[in-house]
Design brief:
The complex is a heterodimer of chains A (105) and B (423). Chain A is α/β, with parallel strands linked by helices. Chain A has helices spanning 14-22, 39-48, 59-65; strands spanning 28-33, 53-58, 91-95, 101-102. The longest helix of chain B is centred in the first third of the chain and has 25 residues, at 24-48. Chain B is globular and about 60 Å long. Classes of the chains: A alpha/beta (105), B mainly alpha (423). Chains A and B meet through helix 2 and strand 2 of A and helix 6 of B.
C-alpha cells in the first residue's frame, strides 16, 4: 500500500460532513489533489464519501482535462485503467498536502 | 450473527469430515474458522457465477447449513458427544489467557474507529461495495464508482465482512475473533504431539504478541486479511486430516495465499489435496478476468526479472531479518525460532512450509518495484505474521523436547500424514 495509516480523520472533517449532507449517495464528487502528498489524505476522504462516485485528479490542469489521477506509477505493475473522461461532478473538493479539505465552488 | 459462521462450520465438518480437536474450546474455534472459510468461498463462487449477493443470499448460507445439521442430527450428536467439555486446569487457564486480550479488543473495537490503512481504504470499501451493489462485478469493481485500490485482490474476507454488514451487524468482531480461534484451534490440534502443557502455555504466550494484539497495521483490531491468512495457513499445516479446504481458503484470501498454498502443498504433496485449491484457483482467475486490474501487482512480470535482481536477495533477507528482530512488535519470538531451528538435531516438520513461505517472500521482495526497506517497513511484519503458527510450532516443539525428551520423536518427526483421527 501507499504508506502507513494517515493521522487524517475524515469522520471528523466538517467539509466532508457537509458534503455528505449535500450530495446524495448516487451523486458524484471530484477531488482535486493540490500536491503529490495530498494523495495520502485524499484516499481517506474518498472512502469517507462512499458510496458516492468519487474521482481523483492530480491538480487543476488534469481536472480541466478530465484526466483521472494515477496513484502509483510503475511500468512493471498495473496502474488503474484510465477509462473514459468522467462527466461533471455534483461537487468539487480540493485536498492539500496537509490534508486540508476545501470546497472551492 | 457471528454464530452463523459456527453453524456453517458444523455443516462443512459434517459434509467433509475434518480432523477436529476434542477439547471444546479448540473444537469450536476450528469449526468457526472452517465456517469463515466456507462462507467466503461459497459467496465467492456464487458472485463469480453472477448470483446476486443480497441479504437473502447471505442469510441463506447459514440457513442451509442449519438444515444440513438438522438432517444429519445423529452426526451432530456424535460430534457433540465426542467433544471433551471438561478441560485440565492447564487447558482452562491457557484458554483464559488466550481469550483475555481478544475480549478486551471486542470491547475497544466497539468504541474506537477503524484506523488502519488497508482496512479503511481497501478491504472495508470492498465489503461495503458488495453489500451496496449485490455483486463482486458491479460498478465499484469495474472502476466506475470511487477508488478501488488493488481491484483484483481476492475477496474471501470482504465477503465475510459483507455478510455481517448485510445482516445488520458490525464486521469488526470477526477480525478480533479470528486470531483467538486460530490459537485455540491450533493449540488443541497440536496438544497431543507437543504435550498438553507446552502447547497450552506456548500458544497462550503467542496470544500476547504485539503484532497480533496491538499492531495498528495487521493486528486484531484492524481489518486486514493477514490474520485470516495466518489462521488458514496454520490450520493447513497442523491438521491431521486433509488440508485441501484450508489451502483453498488461502488461495481466496490474499494474493500471498497462493505462495502459502504452494508451501503447504510442498509440505504434504498429495494429489487429492489439490482438488479444492484447484477449484478455488479457477474461481479466483475467472472472477479476476471479469474485472479490470487497478493497482494490482503483476507478480509474474516481476518474477521474470529475478535473474537480473538476484543480487538483491541479500538486501531483501536483511530487510526481513531487521523486522523479525524488532522487539517492540515481536519480542524475542523470531530470534527464538532461529535458535530452536539451529539447535535441533533432527529435522522439524514445520520447517519445510516455514522456509518455503519465507523464501518466497524474500524472492518477491528482491524483485519489487519499490524500495526494499520501504516495502519491508509497511509489509514485512504482516508477512511474518502469516508464518507465525509453523514458527511457534518449532519453538514449542523445541521446548517440549527439552522438558520431555521421550516426546522428541513424536513431536514432529513422525507426523502422521492423512491420519484423520482427532487430536
Amino acid at each position: 500500500m501507499i504508506a502507513e495509516a494517515s493521522s487524517f480523520r475524515p469522520s471528523e472533517d466538517p467539509v466532508l460532513e457537509e458534503v455528505r449532507g449535500r450530495v446524495p449517495s448516487d451523486g458524484s464528487v471530484d477531488i482535486v489533489m493540490l500536491s503529490g502528498d495530498a494523495s495520502q489524505s485524499a484516499v481517506f476522504a474518498g472512502v469517507a464519501l462512499a458510496p458516492r462516485d468519487v474521482r481523483f485528479f492530480s491538480g487543476w490542469d488534469d481536472w480541466r482535462a478530465r484526466r483521472r489521477a494515477i496513484f502509483f506509477r510503475d511500468a512493471r505493475a498495473a496502474n488503474a485503467a484510465e477509462g473514459p473522461p468522467p462527466a461533471a461532478a455534483t461537487i468539487v473538493l480540493t485536498v492539500d498536502g496537509q490534508g486540508r479539505i476545501a470546497a472551492p465552488r | 450473527m457471528i454464530a452463523a459462521f459456527l453453524i456453517t462450520g458444523v455443516a462443512v465438518a459434517l459434509i467433509m469430515p475434518h480432523a477436529l480437536p476434542r477439547f471444546v474450546a479448540g473444537r469450536i474455534a476450528t469449526l468457526f474458522l472452517l465456517g469463515i472459510g466456507a462462507n467466503g468461498t461459497v459467496l465467492f463462487l456464487l458472485g463469480t457465477l453472477g448470483v446476486p449477493l443480497r441479504p437473502l443470499t447471505f442469510a441463506l448460507i447459514p440457513v442451509v447449513a442449519l438444515l444440513v445439521a438438522v438432517m444429519r442430527r445423529r452426526d451432530v450428536l456424535r460430534l457433540a458427544r465426542g467433544t471433551r467439555v471438561r478441560g485440565t486446569s492447564q487447558e482452562i487457564a491457557s484458554t483464559l489467557v488466550i481469550l483475555l486480550p481478544f475480549v478486551v479488543l471486542l470491547w475497544t473495537t466497539r468504541v474506537v474507529p477503524l484506523a488502519d490503512y488497508d482496512g479503511v481504504t481497501l478491504w472495508m470499501p470492498k465489503a461495503h461495495a458488495v453489500v451496496l451493489e449485490g455483486s463482486i462485478r458491479g460498478p465499484f469493481f469495474q472502476g466506475e464508482r470511487g477508488l478501488n485500490l488493488h481491484n483484483r485482490y481476492p475477496l474471501l474476507m470482504p465477503l465475510n465482512a459483507a455478510t455481517l454488514i448485510a445482516l445488520g451487524s458490525s464486521a469488526r468482531p470477526l477480525f478480533v475473533l479470528i486470531p483467538a480461534a486460530m490459537l485455540l484451534g491450533v493449540r488443541d490440534l497440536l496438544s497431543r504431539r507437543l504435550g498438553r502443557a507446552p502447547a497450552s502455555w506456548g500458544f497462550a504466550a503467542l496470544a500476547w504478541l504485539p503484532q497480533i494484539v496491538t499492531a495498528n497495521e495487521g493486528g486484531a483490531s484492524s481489518a486486514y486479511s493477514d490474520l485470516a491468512l495466518a489462521a488458514f495457513f496454520g490450520m493447513a499445516i497442523v491438521t491431521r486430516g486433509s488440508p485441501g479446504l484450508w489451502i483453498a481458503f488461502l488461495v481466496l484470501t490474499k494474493n500471498e495465499g497462493l505462495l502459502l498454498a504452494l508451501a503447504a502443498l510442498l509440505y504434504r504433496p498429495r494429489l487429492r489435496d489439490l482438488v479444492a485449491p484447484a477449484i478455488a484457483f479457477a474461481v479466483l482467475v475467472t472472477w479476476q478476468q471479469s474485472v479490470p486490474d487497478a493497482y494490482d501487482e503483476r507478480n509474474a512480470a516481476l518474477l521474470r526479472e529475478l535473474t537480473r535482481r538476484i543480487a538483491w536477495i541479500s538486501d531483501a533477507f536483511m530487510a526481513f531479518a531487521r523486522r523479525a528482530g524488532d522487539l517492540r512488535m515481536w519480542g524475542v519470538f523470531w530470534p527464538l525460532v532461529f535458535v530452536c531451528t539451529a539447535i535441533r538435531r533432527k529435522p522439524l516438520c514445520a520447517i519445510t512450509p516455514l522456509l518455503a513461505a519465507l523464501s518466497g517472500y524474500v524472492l518477491m521482495f528482491s524483485v519489487t518495484s519499490w524500495n526494499i526497506d520501504e516495502l519491508a517497513r509497511v509489509s514485512a511484519d504482516r508477512l511474518l505474521l502469516h508464518c507465525v503458527i509453523p514458527a511457534a510450532w518449532i519453538v514449542i516443539a523445541c521446548a517440549s523436547a527439552s522438558v520431555q525428551p521421550k516426546r522428541t520423536a513424536a513431536v514432529c518427526d513422525t507426523l502422521p500424514h492423512g491420519d484423520p483421527s482427532p487430536a
